[in-house]
Design brief:
mainly alpha
Length: 291
């Protein structure tokens, strides 16, 4: 992909962002170090929530509340920041309305005590959403948080792709599973991958003119590992979602006829590459328990 002669003027990108888009480690670290305590704690939260070192290294199991602690420290840091500013968007309104629905549903439930006992499982995410949206208020902060999210997701996708490749891309019972935590179930792992794959693809396209060619080739491999992991989970919903994403991507191309032809070819090839056991699961969809 050719590099524009003046990406700053052509794209309206500030000169301070160009080294970050070029993925230069020294500039990325410098940008991270220049931020405040609240942002550092938000990054630590994201790392512990997605990478989950507490599920990998026993030394971290001594304290079971790493992610919760970091998000609370981020909130305290934001409250103590004299330059903080309150941010509210339509998404914030949606979260607030949904919180109201949860509260009303809990109050009028058949078994209110049971409902309230699970209330914090949802309210924790309200706090997390609020803290992250109040802290990620600049392009640099959002960009760094996005990179942490992508690196954490890449850890999942490359492991899943390697494991599935080692199995000869065959059927594996209940499918690939993630590390202990949110993505241990193949269904949740597939959801994460079909969210991650298009983000990784369009991120690669966005920074293509700023990175070196070998870096770009590596970036293009990232969404492929996500797609392979989604396929390896053997979850029908994840595989259908991935197919719809590919269809939407191809239909966005200018040459629609070629896109439809390519979709047809990919569909035929993909169907024949699916293990026989997975084809049976699709044929039984709607009649078996898991569907």
């Amino acid at each position: 992909m050719p590099v524009p002669s003046s990406p700053t003027h052509a794209r309206g990108v500030s000169s301070s962002m160009e080294p970050l888009y070029a993925l230069r480690p020294s500039h990325l670290w410098g940008a991270f170090a220049n931020e405040g305590f609240a942002f550092w704690m938000a990054c630590a939260y994201l790392f512990f929530e997605y990478v989950r070192p507490q599920a990998i290294w026993p030394v971290f199991e001594i304290y079971p509340y790493w992610a919760r602690t970091f998000i609370l420290l981020a909130l305290i840091g934001w409250l103590l920041d004299p330059n903080r500013r309150f941010v509210w968007t339509w998404a914030s309104t949606g979260i607030a309305v949904f919180l109201g629905v949860i509260i009303l549903a809990s109050m009028t439930a058949y078994w209110p005590a049971l409902s309230w006992s699970q209330f914090m499982n949802f309210f924790n995410w309200v706090v997390i959403f609020f803290v992250l949206t109040q802290i990620a208020t600049t392009r640099v902060r959002f960009y760094i948080l996005l990179l942490i999210f992508m690196l954490a997701s890449l850890k999942l996708s490359q492991h899943g792709a390697r494991v599935w490749a080692g199995m000869g891309f065959g059927f594996s019972g209940w499918g690939l599973a993630g590390p202990r935590g949110f993505f241990q179930n193949p269904g949740e792992l597939a959801i994460q991958m079909v969210i991650f794959a298009p983000i990784a693809l369009f991120f690669s396209l966005a920074v293509a003119s700023y990175v070196k060619r070998w870096q770009l080739y590596l970036l293009y491999l990232v969404p492929i590992t996500a797609a392979l992991t989604a396929l390896g989970t053997n979850t029908r919903g994840g595989q259908i979602a991935l197919a719809v994403q590919v269809l939407a991507l191809l239909l966005s191309m200018k040459q629609r006829f070629k896109a439809l032809l390519l979709v047809t070819i990919l569909a035929v090839v993909g169907y024949h590459l699916l293990p026989e056991e997975q084809k049976v699961r699709f044929e039984q969809a709607g009649t078996d328990i898991t569907s």
